[in-house]
Amino acid sequence: MVTAAAATVVVVAIALMVVIERPGSVTDPLGAAVAQVSTGRQGLVLAQERQKVILQDAATQAFSVTSAPKISTAPPPASQGGGGGTPIVNAPAPNPGTAQSIAYNMLASFGFSKSQFGCLDDLWNAESGWRWNAENASGAYGIPQALPGSKMASAGADWQTNPATQIKWGLGYIKNIYGTPCGAWGHEQADGWY
Fold first, then answer.
1. For residues 11 and 168, which has the higher predicted lDDT (pLDDT)?
2. What is the pTM of this model?
3. Where are the domains of the chain?
4. 138, 147 Cβ separation under 8 angstroms
């Protein structure tokens, strides 16, 4: 609706400019304004916005509620959440022998419940795909994408090659900065980094 109102204002403004600039030369100022607007970038944008409004209107008219939504499972208690209203992401326990399994088994040593694993899994999937040798142009390195990667040396001398060392450092970082993996995941979702 806002876009349609803005388009109307633009067309009327152009119509007024046409009338003011060429009094008596245009018998249909609104038609002249529409013609001017429709021949350029503004016209293309307005046409695209108009099409969106038409599709949204059609979808709204076709939409019908058949029943109230049903919650499949009860939400977790607020005390287990990620802080700041960040929901917990449910995930099954990972396969043994994987970096995810190492992290899953370290959660309790940092005071995190197993329910935090889903957030951690999503976070580090987004950051590094759980690759111990993931590197980006900024210099971030490893599973937690430490910047610079050498920060992880505080967790062990083998920080460049050992997923367990990287995970240990990453969980400590998350606890100190965000409180929980779900807190870090919430920040990642909101700002694109953690």
1. 168
2. 0.55
3. 2-62, 78-191
4. yes
